């Protein structure tokens, strides 16, 4: 984890439970570094599909589209479509959310496993 922290030059790694850690990014600048990294060194297939949706949400925010009702709704649809989906609270606030179809990802070739 220290190597990961040093590589991205961030301090936001926290223990989450007995066997897990969380990496948190607090700024657009730091998030750009992470996105640039995963664009060059893709995640394995299922996580890659989630990443592609996450990146869509990032660009919506970067372009300030999250400040519109339509843009916010799109981000919630993305959130509902990745990882564990929406929390019960968000499901109440955003009923009838449509899931976004995730990209079909075949075996992603990892050019540099290091």
What topology emerges from the helices and strands here?
Blueprint: H1 2-8, E1 13-15, E2 21-23, H2 28-40, H3 45-62, H4 69-81, H5 88-93
Antiparallel strand pairs: 1-2
Helix pairs in contact: 2-3, 3-4
Amount of beta strand: 5-15%
Indicate the CATH class of the domain at 41-114. Answer: Alpha Beta
The largest β sheet comes out as: 2 strands, antiparallel
Structural shape: globular
> What is the radius of gyration?
16 Å
Euclidean distance between termini CA atoms: 15 Å
Poorly predicted regions are none
| Count of DSSP H/I helices | 5
| Side-by-side strand order of the widest sheet | 1-2
Annotated CATH topology of the domain at 41-114: Endonuclease I-creI
One letter per element, helices H and strands E, the order comes to: HEEHHHH
Count every beta strand, where a strand is a DSSP E run of 2 or more residues.
2
Average the pLDDT over all residues and give the rounded result. Answer: 84
CATH superfamily assignment of the domain at 41-114?
Homing endonucleases
Structural class: mainly alpha
Overall CATH architecture of the domain at 41-114: Roll
Helix content: 40-55%
Question: Which short descriptors sum up this protein?
Answer:
Endonuclease I-creI; 114 residues; mainly alpha; two-stranded antiparallel ribbon; single chain
What does it look like?
The chain is mainly alpha-helical and 114 residues long. The protein has helices spanning 2-8, 28-40, 45-62, 69-81, 88-93; strands at 13-15, 21-23. The chain has a two-stranded antiparallel sheet. It has a domain at 41-114: Roll (Endonuclease I-creI). It is built from five helices and two strands, in the order H-E-E-H-H-H-H. It is 50% helix and 5% strand.
